[in-house]
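Researcher: Sequence recovery benchmark, item below. Answer with residues only.
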């Protein structure tokens, strides 16, 4: 590991450049939250849970296999569950800033929750109403709380072409629908999730991870599952 060049250190993963040109993602045991409460949607690391990184990778492996079966492309090359590492093709994240960092996150919502409810609660008569896989786009910017950005602004600022943006939103909905159906078969309910997308050889693909670190899920009794509980329900 020390012979590889670290190119990025994030909240839940470190990235290393490989001689092949690919990138190695190392999943960490760090957890995010607010005021000491674990929340996958938060931007602050509040501690560590032993084995959490490996379990996040196992969930990503689980969902990536299903995405590939549905002809939804990802940047995955290979993974090592024991080492909690995933080798991926180098991707160009959608929507990087003028310094070449950051990017966009694509959020898919099945029902009002979290920041969506806080923004629009005066307009939501039924908090259990369906949002029919609504896609919102945010800027990866922890300091500003990952602000929302709309389609017109993205295109006007040349962050993403209109064609790639439509492809990205379509893939986001397809991923959300696939995950929702898979969880429903396990008597679990997907509340919302976020994914990242990038360009590999000019093609829009799912990048990073699809795990409990990037979604909210509740059981049939309405209890939101933490990372460990979700892992046990999904992987066993």
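Model:
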């Amino acid at each position: 590991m020390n012979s590889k060049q670290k190119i990025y250190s994030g909240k839940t993963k470190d990235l290393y450049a490989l001689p092949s040109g690919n990138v190695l993602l190392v999943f960490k045991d760090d957890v995010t939250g607010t005021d000491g409460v674990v929340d996958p949607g938060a931007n602050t690391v509040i501690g560590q849970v032993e084995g959490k990184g490996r379990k996040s990778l196992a969930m990503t492996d689980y969902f990536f296999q299903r995405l590939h079966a549905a002809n939804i492309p990802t940047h995955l090359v290979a993974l090592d569950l024991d080492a909690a590492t995933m080798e991926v093709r180098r991707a160009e994240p959608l929507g990087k800033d003028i310094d070449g960092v950051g990017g966009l996150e694509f959020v898919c919502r099945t029902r009002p929750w979290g920041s969506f409810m806080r923004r629009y609660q005066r307009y939501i008569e039924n908090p259990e109403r369906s949002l029919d896989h609504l896609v919102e786009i945010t800027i990866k910017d922890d300091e500003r709380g990952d602000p929302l950005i709309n389609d017109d602004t993205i295109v006007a600022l040349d962050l993403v072409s209109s064609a790639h943006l439509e492809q990205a939103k379509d893939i986001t909905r397809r991923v959300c629908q696939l995950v929702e159906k898979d969880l429903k078969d396990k008597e679990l309910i997907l509340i919302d999730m976020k994914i990242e997308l990038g360009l590999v050889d000019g093609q829009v693909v799912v990048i990073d991870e699809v795990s409990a670190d990037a979604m909210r899920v509740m059981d049939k009794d309405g209890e939101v599952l933490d990372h460990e509980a979700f892992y046990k329900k999904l992987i066993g």
